[in-house]
Amino acid sequence: MADERTAPLRTHDPSRLGDYELVGRLGEGGMGTVYLGRSAAGVPVAVKVIRADLASDDAFRRRFRSEVARVRQVPPFCTAEILDADPEHDPPYLVVEFVDGPNLADVVRDRGPLTAANLHSVAIGVATALTAIHGAGIIHRDLKPHNVLLAPGSPKVIDFGIARSLAATDGHTLPGEMLGTVAYMAPERFGDDSAMLTPAADVFAWGAVVAYAGTGRTPFGGDSLPATAVRILTVPPDLTGLSGPLRDLVERALAKDPAERPTARELLDLLVAGPQQPAPAAAALAHQPDLRVAAQEAQAASAVEAPTELVGYAEDAIVTQPVPVDPPGVTNPFRHDPHPRRPWVLPAAVVLLVVAVLAVGGLAAAYWPSRDRTGDPGVTVAEVEAGGVQAGAAPSIVDTLRKPRLWQATTDATERAACSFRDGLVVRRETVGVYRCLGPADSQPADVTAEVGVQLLTKDSCATIWMRFRVNQGYQVRVCERNIYVSTHKSADVVVLKTFPLDDHPVQLGAAPVRITVSVAGNDLEVLRAGRPVGVVPITDRKLTTGRVLLGVYTEQNAPRTGPYEVRFTDISIWPAVR
After folding, report:
1. Mode of pairing for the β-strands spanning 93-97 and 321-323
2. Which fold has domain 396-576?
3. Rounded to 5 degrees, what are φ and ψ at 9?
4. Do 149 and 158 contact (CB within 8 A), yes or no?
5. What one-character DSSP code corresponds to residue 259?
């Protein structure tokens, strides 16, 4: 049964654990050793044995027991099924379905990027697995090409739930292994270790894995761990070699802000039944009936068996931790995602990483966005550090919005909405509601000013600017034909704080852009139109203290159910406000 992927047992290796005979070594990781085993019925299995130093820790053993109980609830839709476990054994072990197939990393290394049909098979298979894993309340935390096995019938994802290596703190990780993992880590994972990790991190890893499978390289590849991390935090992914709808989906999955990423279920829906389903995806499903059935079953299970609470992980924990969810009846107007997202932690992470990068050879100059010779400023360390920009400093963000740069083109088939570039950033929605564009995820200082050109292209459309936006809440300024509204916007709840009528000077549909300036400073939010004051609104919500500046569309009150609703933004500048 052993093959070239199996090494012989060593002198001190056990020959049997419980009902399982061990016949060879499959690998070794941060939590222990993986053996090729055989059940009493002669079925090959993978047996994961916990390291002795961890097994002697009672707290670890309790966490391991709890985690095993949860991961056994994951349905085997493109995942390696959990077959057995004995947390009380000395040492504890876990028995997993043996998947007879090479891992994705080795296949791409030896044969190069996958063909279109095979690439879509991997994309669908991993999205199916994540849908099943997340549906059971689990986050993988270590999705990478080594953990995707190309088995006959369909790809299979392994090492979920308890996969997080403890080697980062015990000194057992080799630099190459750490770099391989970092290349698939979401930006939010470089922040505070005590912060909660959500399923969005796995979606980011999905995008990086698919990009690797299709191009033969990681989308943020650097020549060192710090360089790779800095690129993940600060630059767009390199997706050269990908094309069509799959490229667009990978790009969305690799958004810096976790709130901008699709869910695993949304990925799967768009891959197997979306309005722009790629032909290679249809071919992959047609020629792999096992994959098609797994995808369909994962969709059906997630529709009726989704967990009633979001389960997330503290980065230093093994056991799952519950995370609060929205109150009953409250939905997120920006996404059909039941999972609230953790705040993105770029500023602190960037400062720490820049220090690390400078310490290992000044790589920041190679990877950090800076002012170019055209005078178009990028984002600098001083400008993104929370509270670190002094009054009178140059703008932290300047973008003409004429082409993808800091803001990106996006399409949401479910919401029937899109952001595109047509003489500016055009935001369009076919039905009533809201849609935000994918823009820079930089958290601005508490006191900040944003100025942007605004055009209303269709009736009942409002150009919308969000200030101090974080975790689906912030201050909202809606510029409509006859009114400017200043509101708080928390999940689905929009509370108007002040309405400023524009009866004498309405915003004309299709007219030249109107310069709108919004400034938040201390407890005041001020709106200006063409440099002239419109009004000031007191802002005292203690939960809305800092965050991002966002652009989008919001429909006018009492607008017809169908549109289209369309606005355009041009020439945005963001800088520290002066009290």
Report:
1. unpaired
2. Jelly Rolls (2.60.120)
3. -65, 150
4. yes
5. G
SS3 breakdown of the chain: % helix, strand, coil, rounded to 5?
30, 30, 45
Top-tier CATH class for 109-339: mainly alpha
Please give the positions annotated as active site. Answer: 142
Cα Rg for the chain, rounded, in angstroms? 25
Q: Can you give 260-311 as a three-state secondary structure string?
A: HCCCHHHHHHHHHHCCCCCHHHHHHHHHCHHHHHHHHHHHHHHHHCCCCCEE
Confidence of residue 526 (pLDDT cuts 50, 70, 90): very high
pLDDT digits (tens, 9 = 90+) for 135-184: 877 888 889 999 999 988 889 998 875 534 333 333 333 333 443 478 99
Of 196, 140, 132, nearest to 165 (Cα)?
A: 140
Tokens of 356: 């690390």
Report how far residue 194's alpha carbon sits from residue 173's, in angstroms, rounded to the nearest whole number: 21
Give the pLDDT score at 365: 29
β pairing state of 20-28 and 16-17: antiparallel
Query: Looking up tokens 């958004």, which residue turns up?
Result: 255
The Cα–Cα gap between 243 and 388 comes to 40
Cα distance between residue 193 and residue 211, in whole Å: 27
C-beta separation of 242 from 215 below 8 A: yes
pLDDT at 318: 34
Angle 420-232-344 from CA coordinates, rounded to 5°:
75
**What 3-state DSSP class applies to 330?**
coil
Which residue do the tokens 């999972």 mark?
Answer: 339
> Does the pLDDT at position 193 exceed 70?
no
Q: Are 522 and 447 in contact (CB under 8 A)?
A: yes
Distance CA 377, CA 387 (A): 19
State CA 565 to chain mean position distance.
28
d(CA 246, CA 243): 6
Domain boundaries, the chain: 16-97, 109-339, 396-576
Residue in the structure block whose two tokens are 């007191």 = 538
319 Rama sector, left if φ>0, alpha if ψ -120 to 50, beta otherwise: beta
74 with 123: CB under 8 angstroms? no
Q: Is the per-residue pLDDT at 422 higher than 80? A: yes
- What per-residue confidence (pLDDT) applies to 539? 92
Helices (H) and strands (E) in the chain, counts: 15, 26
CATH number of the 16-97 domain: 3.30.200.20
The phi and psi torsions of 572 (rounded to 5 degrees) equal: -95, 140
Residues with Cβ < 8 Å from 29, sequence gap 6 or more?
A: 165, 167
Q: What angle, 0 to 180 degrees and rounded to 10, lies between the N-to-C axes of helices 225-234 and 346-359?
A: 150
Within 10 A of 536 (CB to CB), how many other CB atoms are there?
A: 14
In 3-state terms, what secondary structure has residue 475? strand
Q: What is the pLDDT of residues 19-73, one digit of tens each?
A: 999 999 988 766 788 999 999 999 999 998 988 877 777 777 777 887 787 777 7
Which residue's structure tokens are 């933004």?
A: 569
Please tell me the total number of residues recorded for the chain in this structure. Answer: 579
- How far is Cα 508 from Cα 460, in angstroms, rounded to an integer? 12
